[in-house]
Amino acid sequence: MSAGQDRVYPLISGGQYHFNANGTKIDFVGGSSQLMATNFHDNVTFVGEKFTITGSAKFGDGVINYVRYGHEGGNTIKWYTSGVEEMRLESDGDLHVDGDVIAYSATTSDYRLKENITPLAGSLDIVCELQGVKFDWKYRDEKEQVGLIAQNVELVIPEAITEKKLPYYSNKDGKKYKTIKYEMIIPHLIESIKELKTEIDSLKMRLGDS
Description:
By secondary structure, this protein is of the alpha+beta class. The chain folds into three domains: 52 residues, no CATH class; 47 residues; 71 residues, no CATH class. It is built from three helices and twelve strands; from the N terminus they run E-E-E-E-E-E-E-E-H-E-E-H-E-E-H. The strands form four sheets. The chain has a five-stranded antiparallel beta sheet, with no helix packed on it. A three-stranded antiparallel beta sheet has the order 1-2-3, with no helix packed on it. Helix 1 packs across helix 3. It is elongated and about 80 Å long.
């Protein structure tokens, strides 16, 4: 079939069509198999409310740039560019990206959605227990990074620590590693500044009285 010429293959209600890899054969589930008179042209459009994939599938050129679903028996969707996996969406909702994510995001914080609200206490002491470090990643070409160590943070802010499989930071050994929710450290930094200001104001008053 030459480009620009479309052929419509309407789906029978509840039926399934299977296309082979080179687009020359179409199998009718519950019916007969037949060779198509002509091949598909480059663009194939599926029209309908539902498109179901059984097993694994690739979308794209399948070699260089493509999306892969159900690979190795999992429910993970993977994105490849230049033949390299760059992103994956796992069945638990976790999105892993091998690179910078440039996006805008807002944090849900309306008090009407919260309960058991209590002020933080001892934030200055907690922050003083944190240790900033410089390091190199073992399995990534990223050197002289700065940050925190999850095990150290866990000792004073355990709620900021979760464990996840990290395919782009480990050697894909399937193990879970500790991650830090840095946004849960920010409130302690704010309260620490307020504590320090209170101490500074108190010292100023003493010096003013002397």
